[in-house]
Amino acid sequence: MRRVTFDLDVLRSFVTGVELGSFARAAERLGRSTSALSAQLKKLEEQAGTPVLRKAGRGMVLTEAGETMLAYARRLLELNDEAASALRGAQLEGGVRLGLQEDFGESLLPGVLGRFARAHPRVRVEVRIARNAELLDRLASGRLDLALAWDAGVTTPYAEHLGDVPMCWIGAGGLDPARLRPPGEALPLVMLEAPCLMRTAAITALDRANIPWRIAFTSASLAGIWAAVAAGLGLSLRTSCGLPPSVRALAPQSVMLPSLGSLGLRLHRAEADPAPAITQLASILARQWQELPLAA
Fold it and tell me: What is the pTM of this model?
């Protein structure tokens, strides 16, 4: 059987088009004509021996084979980019100071640090886990190089919008949420200490729906919130980022609660032209985020 060697340049065009939702936009980003990119996609389907895209309305969607190809293409490009970074940046030294929310400590950070350490083993990484206000304050005062923070309407000069994540009601894994709110009683809430974006969002949504509520538990840390929710003390409001097994996201209709909107996520840089190590970590972080199942 003849071995097939996929063209990484073709795979990059394919992945970029899928991630942008438009192959015309992909051609523009990659500096190619749309006809050249179409030729690359045709080459990819010839190499794969099966269609990877099909028409749907005015656009294109992945076939089943295309979904498989996308997963492998991302892995191949990741290894290629890691190898290139390692060869170009093996001598990079110094440090990078990254700040992020507790939500991403287990779901995002291990993959980011693993990729970065393999490419730049001599660079020291300092991580600060904190809430939005502290992260942006540290960035502004020069105590952080990068900050991954929820979009609270606060702008910084060098910020990149990574995506939007739906907010959801969170309850204990094995608890019937209806038991938390007997008829005529206020809904118990488990929340971070004020000020808190999601605390405000929960209270606002409940007030608009004329649903009585009470704060049953507060904590300065997300670990405390998860413990209280798992113990059945009340419901919380977060995103599905980094949920532990002891809690679960609830469908609003299952608990007769108002639906919630989404929360934007931004990657803030302290400088317009940061050091190469900072740029590399920012790139890896953005790519790792896009690969999370919940990224939007």
Answer: 0.68
